[in-house]
């Protein structure tokens, strides 16, 4: 499918077809990555390190190339922002932009931990309208379209109905979990989730009640998951209760909190107190 999107954007009538196409591309990209993935063991892919020490594998680069080749023709008018593509495009001038993480959780992928995924989002005017997170080694595919809900492997998902932070299933930085317990909250700590997109997607599915992301998450870490949370009835905001906007000059974000609306206010207040002491 190719959409004739222009400066007017993408119509809601095109969402389902585009989302299905993006999901197919994500699954095919997952097959490429799986060729190099060894569960419980080191990847067979060549691994190099970027400036700053972050690893990038041969699989990241192959998937990135494939995604650009397959996604761009779907919406020719869209710009491109990917973790593994040099950011030299005219994306800032575009109404529509694909935001992509070829492998979110590269360190996990390299070590044989299955909690890594392929994160794809299409944004319009700085907000996500379509999102896919495919977890190849877990056989899980999350998908969402603006105002059409969110799904996991085709089944509708919704955020947790928990209304109290006490006793909640929580994932986030150790500092946040320690800080909550120091405030007297008895939370159910989840083991570290190496893919930030997957951590947030688990809030969308109700598998987690709440989650926190540290300062400086990139657009590609959160754009698809943001829409998943939104369409599952949850909230993703910074500590000023502002939702993330995308495709900025520097596509990074403040600390973020994710939860259902009835829990979100309490979560934000508790995390604000932690931030004030650090």
- Major sheet: arrangement of strands: 3-4-5-6-7-8-9
Helix content: 25-40%
Number of strands: 14
Task: Please identify the top-level CATH class of the largest domain.
Answer: Alpha Beta
Unreliable runs: none
The DSSP helix count reads 7
Q: Please identify, by name, the CATH architecture of the largest domain.
A: 2-Layer Sandwich
Give the SSE map.
Blueprint: H1 15-34, E1 47-49, E2 55-57, H2 58-71, E3 79-82, E4 96-104, H3 106-111, E5 117-124, E6 127-135, E7 140-145, E8 149-152, E9 155-156, E10 169-171, H4 174-182, E11 188-189, H5 196-204, E12 210-213, H6 219-231, E13 235-238, E14 256-259, H7 261-276
Parallel strand pairs: 3-4, 10-11, 10-12
Antiparallel strand pairs: 1-2, 4-5, 5-6, 6-7, 7-8, 8-9, 12-14, 13-14
Descriptive report:
This protein is an alpha+beta fold and about 280 residues long. It folds into 2 domains: about 10-155, 2-Layer Sandwich (Fructose-1,6-Bisphosphatase, Chain A, domain 1), CATH 3.30.540.10; about 170-275, D-Maltodextrin-Binding Protein, domain 2, CATH 3.40.190.80. It has 7 helices and 14 strands. The strands form 3 sheets. The protein has a 7-stranded mixed sheet, with helices on both faces. It is globular, with a radius of gyration of 18 Å. The N and C termini lie far apart (about 50 Å). About 50% of the residues are buried.
Defining key terms:
five-stranded mixed sheet; alpha+beta; Fructose-1,6-Bisphosphatase, Chain A, domain 1; 278 residues; seven-stranded mixed sheet; D-Maltodextrin-Binding Protein, domain 2
